[in-house]
Amino acid sequence: MKTTRLTMAQALVLYLSQQSVERDGVVNKFFEGVWGIFGHGNVAGIGQALQQYADELRFFQARNEQAMVHAAIAFSKQRNRLATFACTSSIGPGATNMITGAAVATVNRIPVLLLPGDIFAERMQAPVLQQLENEHSLDVSVNDAFKPVSRFWDRIYRPEQLISSVHEAMRVLTSPADTGAVTLALPQDVQATAYDYPVELFEPRVWHIRRDRPDAGLLARAAAAIRDAKHPMIVAGGGVHYSGAHDALQVLVETLGIPVGESQAGKGALPYDHPLNLGAIGATGTEGANIIAREADLIIGIGTRYSDFTSASNTAFQNPDVRFININVMEFDAYKRSAIPLVGDARATLEELLPLVQDFQTDAEYQTRCRQLNAAWDMEVARIYNLEHEPMLSQGEVVGMINTFSRARDVVLCAAGSLPGDLHKLWRTRDPRAYHLEYGFSTMGYEIAGGLGAKLADPTREVYVMVGDASFLMMNSELVTMVQEGIKVTIIILDNHGYASIGGLSKSVGSDGFGTKYRQRTDTGQLDGEVLPLDFVKLCEGMGALTFKALNRDEFGDALERAREVTGGPVCIVTEVDRRQRVGGYESWWDVSVAEVSENPDVQRARAAYEAAKQKERHYL
Known about the structure:
- The chain is α/β, with parallel strands linked by helices.
- The protein folds into three domains: 3-208, Thiamin diphosphate (ThDP)-binding fold, Pyr/PP domains (Rossmann fold, 3-Layer(aba) Sandwich), CATH 3.40.50.970; 216-374, 3-Layer(aba) Sandwich (Rossmann fold), CATH 3.40.50; 386-497 and 532-576, 3-Layer(aba) Sandwich (Rossmann fold), CATH 3.40.50.970.
- It has 23 helices and 23 strands.
- Strand 22, helix 22 (553-565) and strand 23 form a beta-alpha-beta unit.
C-alpha cells in the first residue's frame, strides 16, 4: 500500500478538500471551506494544515465561534444541505462557544462539521491552560459537552484513528435522515503528530445522496386513507425544500384539490398566491390554515416534525376522527401521531403516491372555501402592510415594505423574537429558497452570521436580514467579517427598546413585561427609568458598515433603494418600531405555563385562561 507521511491535521484538511456529493446526477464539492478562530489548541495543527492547503480548502476568519457555526448552518440550509463548512476552534471557551451552534444544527437537521481543539492526549502537561479538570476521570474535557448535541462525536487520540473516523463523519453529514452536527475533538498534540497515511484516503470521493422509497404496503394504506377523506390537509415542512419536492407537491395539490399549510421550515413550499396555499399553520399561523386544520379529518405531514408551534401545542387538529399520514426520511418523525408512516424522500414518495390516488379529488365546495380563505388572508396582509401607523412604523409595516420592495429571489432571513411569527404570517413568498428562518432552536444571535452564510451560498440573491435590537446586541460581530470579505448583506435593525417578543408574552401571562425593557435602573431598585441611550447607527458604522437611519415610511423606502445600489460590504438600516402595535394571533394558541399560585390578580386571570385553553390539548394515540 502506497503511503504519504502527514500530520493528522494535514491529513484531515486534505481529506475534506476531496469530498463531493451527488444527487440526481449533479455533483458538487461538499466542503466550501473552513471557518476558524485560532488559539493554542489548533493554531499549530489545523492552522498549519489550512495554510499548507490554502489552495485546496479556503479559510474564513470569524469573530465569534458560535457565529461561525451559524454562518455554516445558514450556508448549508440555503444549499438544501448539499454543501457545508467545517469550523475549527481552540480548546476551552473557543470550543464551548460552538456548542449552541451544534444544537442549532442538530435540531434543524443541518450538516456542519465541528473541529474543536482539545487537551493533550499524552497528558504530561496537564492541567493546561483552559483545561476543565475532572476528579472522576482524566478522559473528560469540555468537548464532551458536545455529545448530546451532535449526531456523531469522536475524539482522535491517535493519528491513525482519523482514517475510520472521517468516513463515519461523512456518512452522517451526507445522510438525509441522520444529519446534524458532527464533532471531532482534536487533542492538540495529536493534530501535530505525523503518520504514514494510505494515499487512497485522499483520492476524490463522491457521496451519493439517496432518495429513499416508502414501503409499498404502507403506500397503499396511505392511498386508501386519502380516498376515504372528506377534508384532507397537507402540512408542508422543511423536508419539502431539502428534497426539492416543490413541483411534485404542486402537482399533488392541484390533482387532488388538497389545501396546504406551511410550517416555518416549510414556508415557500408553494407560492403564497397559489389558491390552495393557506399559508402559515399553527401558533403563528393564518386564520384560514388554522380553521381548516381544526376541521380536517386527514393530515398529510410532509417533512415536518410537528413542533409545538406547528401543532399549536397539540391544539391545532381538533377533529375527533383525524388521522395522519407522515412522509419523512426520519423514521422517528414518520411515526409521530400514530400516523401511517411513509419513511422516504419527500419527492420520491409524492411521485409514487400520486398514481395511486389520481382518481381522487376533494369536493368543489371544500376547494372553493379554501380559495376564499386564501383571498381573505391576502386582504388581511395588505391591511397590515398599509397601516400608516404613527408616530413610528409598526413591525408589520416594515415587513411589508421589505417584502414589496424585494425581488422574488431575494432572501429574507430571521431567527428569534416576534419577527418570526410576523414573517411566518405575513411574508409573501414567491421563490422556494427566498424565506430563511432558523426556528427549530429559535436562536437569538443567528441572524447576522446567518445572513453571511446565506449570501455565501448564493451570491446572486440579495439577502435581507431582519433582526431586533436585542438579538443584534447578542451577536453582531460578523458585520466585521462581511466588511473583510466584501460581502453585501442588507441588515434591518428594528429598535423596540428591549425584548419585545418576550415582553408581550410576559404581559399575556400576567407579569406586565417584567425585565424585558431596555431601561436604566432607578433609585427604586427596578429597571424602570429612562430608555437606554443606544445608538445603533454608530455601532454599525464603527464596525465598518454603511448605515442609514429611517424614521418614517419615506425614509425607510429611500434607505432600501440606496442599499440596493451597494455592491460590496454590509448595509444596515436602523428604524424604530412601536412594540405596542403587534400583529395578533389567528385561531391559535401556544402553551406557556402560567404560575398556578400568585398574589397578582393579572397572573390569576392568566392562569384561569390557561387552564381553559389546556382543555383543547390532546394526545394522539
